[in-house]
Tetratricopeptide repeat protein (Gemmata algarum), 503 residues
Amino acid sequence: MPPFFRNPWTFILLMACATAAVAVAADPTPEEIKEGERLFRDVYGKEYDRVGKGKAALPADRVAFGKKLWDAACDSRSNPGLFRVLLNKSLPLTLADPIGYPTAIKIRRTQLTEGKERPEQLAALATVLDRAARAEKPEQRAKYGAELVEVYREAADACYDLGRDADAVTFWGKAKAAAGAHLPPAVAAPLVKEIATDQAECESHRKHAADLKRFTQALQDRADDPKANLGMGLLLLRDGKEAAAAKHLALATIPDLKTAGELLTAQPVPFVKVGDAFRSAGENVAGERALLLGWARRCYEAALASDPRHPDAARLKLLIKELPSLRSFTPTGIVAVLDEEKSVADALGKSEGVAKILWSGSGYAGSGCLEVRSGVPKQAEQRGGAVEGWKFALAEWPNPGEYRYLRFAIRVTDGTHAFVNFGRVTYTVGKSDLNNRAAFSVAEKVPDTWLVVTRDLVLDVGESFPLSELRVGTDGVVQIDAVYLGRTRRELGRYYPKPVERK
C-alpha cells in the first residue's frame, strides 16, 4: 500500500548486534502487584501515611510527593507490579492542586492501553485535561484544549470501531464543546466542521458496510440481479476498485454504466469510450454524479497518459479541466518514514559489514519490507545512506510539519532478540542485557508474526528532538515495515496502512 507522503532518508545507520533493554512494564500478575505493594510500603509507607493520607498535609506537599512517586515509577518500568502501584498511588496526589495537573496528564497517558477499555481510559485522560485547561487563564487554555479535543475524537473513533455508536456520538459532541470552550474562535470553528465531517464519514462508512452486506446477499441469491450488480458496482467504484466494479456494472440496469463495465473489461481498455460512458451516466444518476464524473475524468487522464498525441486530445484536456477529480483524502497529520522504500535497501545492501540488508518480498502492508540479517552477535560497521531529506521535528504540541507519535511493524523470523533505534530511543523485542535507559521492551518474546508498535515519542524521550536516524539490529533476521509518524494517535489509527490479507 503506497504511503500518503514519500520522504527520503538522509542518514540511516543499521547495526547488527546482540541487544536488549530495560523492559517497559507489561500487565502485572496479582503476585507482582502484591510484591509491588510490599516494596512500596517498605520504601514510601511512612511518607505516604503522613503526606498522602494525612489530613493536615498541604496540597503542594501532596503534589510534590506525587511527582516523586511518578519519577520512581519511570525508573521502575522493568518491575510491572511496582510500576502499576506507583502510578495508582501518584495519580490522586498530583490532582490535589493545579500545579500537579501536568504530571497527572503524563500518568493518564501512560495508563492508556489497546483494547475494549481504551474509550474509558481516554475519557479519564480527558477529565484531567479538562481540569488542567479550566485552571489556566482563558488565553492559555489552548495548550491543553487542543489535546483534549483530539482525545475526545480518538475516543469517538474507538467507540465507533467497537460498534458503540451512541457513545461515539457523545464523544464527538464533547469534542465540539471542548473546542468551543478552550480554543480561540478562529481555531475552533474549522475544527468543529472537521469533527462534523468525521462523524458524517463514519456514518457513511456504516451505511457502506450495510449496503455491501445487502448487495452481497442479493448476489448470492441471484448472481445476475441487475439492481444488486448496479449497487455493488457503485460501491466498488467508491472504493477505487474499478476492475472488480467492471464485472458488476456490465450486468447493471443503467445502459451507460453497463457499457462502461463492458468496456472496462476489454483489453486494451478504450479509456475515452469508458470516460464518455461514465460522463453520460453521471448526467443521469444524480445521487452518484460526483463519483461517476470523477471516474470519467480519470479515464480521460489515462487516455492522454497512454497516448499524449491522442487525436481527441484537445477535447480530453478541456474535459479534464472541467470535470471534478475523484475525492481522495490526504491527511496532513501523518507521514511515511519507511513504506515500500526498496531503493533504501538496495543502496544499503551494497555496503560491507556484519549485517545483510535487503528488501524482502513479504511485507506487512505491501509488497515488501526492510530486512536485516545477522547471525553474528557483535556490533557491525555503521553505514549511512546517500539520500537527502529525512529529518522530522518532534513536539509535545505538534504544529504543521511536527509529529509526536510513532507507529511501525516488526517481525523476527529467526533469532532470539532484535532492536530498532530511532534517534534517541530504542525499542526491543526478546530478552538480553543492554543497559540503556532510553530503551523500551515492546515484546518479551520475539514476534514471528507482524507486531504493530505505537509509541508516544515525547513520553518516551521526554523532550523535543529531530528524528534523523534509524538503527536496526538482531542476532537473526528482523523485518521492519510501515514506519509512520503522526501528530495524534487518532490520525495514525485512522490512516495507518492495513495489513495484507494472506490466504
Notes: The chain has three domains: 31-197, 206-322, 334-495. The radius of gyration is 27 Å. The chain has a mean pLDDT of 81.
